Amino acid sequence: MLDVWVAGAGMTRIGRRSESLPDLMAEAAHAALRGAGLERPDAIVVAAMNPEEFVGDGNFASYVATHMGFAETPAIRIETATSSGAAAFYAGFAQIAAGLRRAVLVVGGEKMTHLDTPRVSELIGRSIDPYERSYGATMPALAGLVARALMAGHGVAPRELAQVAVKNHANALRNPYAHFRRAVTIDEVLDSRMVADPLRLLHCCPISDGAAAVVLTAAHAGVRVAGIGQGTDTLAIRHRDVLTSFRATRAAALAAFAMAGFGPERVDVAELHDAFTPFELISLEDLGLVPAGKAGRATLDGDGARADRRVRVAAHGARRGVASGGAHCARSVDRRARDEQLGDPAGGGVIEPIQGSRCPACGLTVAPPTPFCPRDPVEMTPVELEGAGEIVSFTTLHSPPAGFRSSLHIALVALEGGARFICHGAETRGLRIGSRVAIEAVDDVYYFSHLGALDRARLFWRRAGRAGDRMHAITRSLAKRVWKGKERVSS
Ligand SMILES: [Zn+2]
């Protein structure tokens, strides 16, 4: 494998820009080429998340190459949602390392601010698992689930989470390319508008326009790429075992450090993807830059302080990721119809079985069922799961996507039998991670409800089998009566 060097880099100012996306990309690309002292690259790799939807242009690599004066230079486009830029760098690196090309221009950009926020959120939300999207899950909603798990399960304090935004806004203040060049305080972050409980506006990235480019060469230049790695994980958040660590990040870091021949102890500056503040804390630990469970404290103490030395965590604040707001929805639910049906023995009020499937190879159980295991190329075995379980995390979306009522409560529930399940709820008052809930379906939409003592007894007797039949019948009739009473009170 050949050594790969970064010979030049260019970037536009990030923010609300009047130029077209090809214009922005040309600005960044020509700056990078000038920096490299290169007139013409051997190949171009273009990163854009979904220009077909955002700006209405397809065949985007050829379009951008032609637009910047390189119609005859081979160009390909790379897309991996919000990591498209990094993936394009990887593809450019691979071409040089393999000896296919001597000089590759890698250029990425997005143009989003000309669309209104609900539309932008909907377009970005298309990169979310379709089933979870159909429950109103948006990028902020999924980040909210992660943030709550991080705070409740790992003891990350609100001030620690807020400090990520404070630090990155302070970095942006010193960055002439940044979208928002203004300092914020912890109190401002904690007082900003709630977006996806517990995440507030200043925990989330803005919607921006801009582009960046690098020139990679086989010829010796200023910076050598010591190591590079790529990782992925299941698209659906419900198919993941943990919310507070990202498998994709760990896999990518492992590969990059292995190639480099050294570990995180030699890293002086780290620039992390911080679309939402909890992601930076998680990445700090997944990359091994701070010990597990210490990222929040380290951030509060100053740029990712370590016991022996300091790592500069430099998220430049120019464009902190992509999304803020709601996303695509697939169904609209009438709250009143739902309230009328829940607690009615004919329409709900009974814990019902949920169809799922189990992997014969790794044992992963999923709901709803999938034909193949997300982690293994084997066919899944159908299973029936109990419609009850424990809350893994939950969030309330205060600006839910079009078609959903505000405020939208979304929970991730670990069902009896192992599968994790995304569902709606009528309320989250008194709800905690670990709370026992029952799952009910109304018109094929699943809802969680808190489980009272009688409902738990009902579940127990159901599991106890035939011996408990008589008690089961008594408990069930009692439970139904209580359930109906409760629903009447709350509606
Ligand atoms: Zn499997």
Keyphrases for this structure?
about 500 residues, alpha+beta, Peroxisomal Thiolase, Chain A, domain 1, OB fold (Dihydrolipoamide Acetyltransferase, E2P), 2 domains, six-stranded mixed beta sheet, five-stranded mixed barrel, 15 helices, about 35% helix, about 20% strand, globular, disordered C terminus
Structural description of this entry:
The strands form 5 sheets. Strands 3-2-4-7-1-8 form a 6-stranded mixed beta sheet, with helices on both faces. Residues 304-310, 316-349, 466-475 and 484-491 have low confidence and may be disordered. 46% of the residues are buried. Helix 8 crosses helix 12 and helix 14 packs antiparallel against helix 15 (469-490). The chain is globular, with a radius of gyration of 25 Å. It is α+β, with helices and mostly antiparallel strands and 491 residues long. The chain has helices at 21-36, 51-54, 60-67, 84-97, 117-125, 130-133, 139-154, 158-173, 186-191, 247-260, 277-286, 295-301, 335-341, 453-464, 469-490; strands at residues 5-11, 43-47, 75-78, 103-110, 194-196, 199-200, 210-217, 223-224, 269-270, 312-313, 354-358, 365-366, 381-385, 388-397, 408-415, 420-425, 436-442, 445-450. Helix content is 34%, strand content 19%. The N and C termini lie far apart (66 Å). Zinc ion binds at residues 359, 361-362, 364, 373, 375-376.
